[in-house]
Sequence to fold (335 residues):
Amino acid sequence: MKKLLILFLLAVLVTISLTGCKGKGETADQISPGEKGYKIRIAEQFGLVYAPLMIAREKGFFEKYGLDVEWKRFGSGGAAREALASGDLDAAFMGIPPFLIGWDKGVPAKVALGYVVSPVSLVTYNPEIRSIKDLKPGYKIALPSPGSVQHILLSMAAERELGDPRALDDLLVALPHPDGAAAMIAKKDIHAHFTTPPYLFEELSQPGYVEILKGTEAFGGEFSFNVGLVTLKYHDENPQGYAAFIQGVNEAIAWINLNKREAAKILSPKFNLPEDKLYKYMTWEGMNYTTATYGLLEFAEFMKKTGYIGRLPKDLSEVAYENVLAVIGKREGGQ
Fold:
């Protein structure tokens, strides 16, 4: 009888430990699918590079791991960075340059994962412009904002081809991608547009529109077009929420890579594009949905040299979280 009583009490304790401690302190994988748990505010922007985030939203991948997501939309990485700085966001996705500018100014966030390698190009319809050397005063170049990845890529090309990384800065016009694409196709007010898919592909499908600079040419190889950021406060105070965020993005990217046809069907109405055309764009050469991080320190070194930031990270741990450091590793031997 005594033995049965002990077994009964043990069963009660196990039941309490599994069902009576929901919420903070519970690991993400203990939360049932669809059950809301950890609040997180995530920024989204425009463009095909955000397809995994849109799929995560549609398929409920964040909720699967216990996140209760509040979505906020921004027109540029700079605007999302300001929201991170003011405490209005927990997580955002942006190019490495706007992140580094924020880090340099003390914005309390680090890289939590890479997010998409994507074509990005400078396009023009003007037959008199066939390289950046033809961009003279009076011409206007649209890009999302000063300090954006497009701006720093243009600066890299300007340093190499024009001898001055800021040679084209006076020609810049800040426009969100949809507005820039609309102005380009209407041939109104701007003469060139540094943009990403699907706007890039839509512009190049117009007669007479040509690429005059590719992002990989400017950078000298592949780079992460975007990285995912999480604030220090959220990372430190919500380790389960942070882990759930990483899990949600990982699952979204894995799913989209295995199901691009279905992803195109889901996202076609949101981009107002035919399903077949969107599938073609999602499988365009150079598109790579991946959480690997490329180019972080290379961007930092260029931006420090040219004065866009005032300091360099002493090591990656200053700008990236432990899961990113684990993926990158540290090769001994000075290389």
About this structure: The beta strands are 38-44, 67-73, 91-94, 109-115, 121-124, 141-143, 172-174, 192-195, 210-214, 226-231. The two ends are 68 Å apart (CA to CA). Residues 129 and 228 are 35 Å apart (CA to CA). Confidence is low (pLDDT under 50) at residues 1-31.
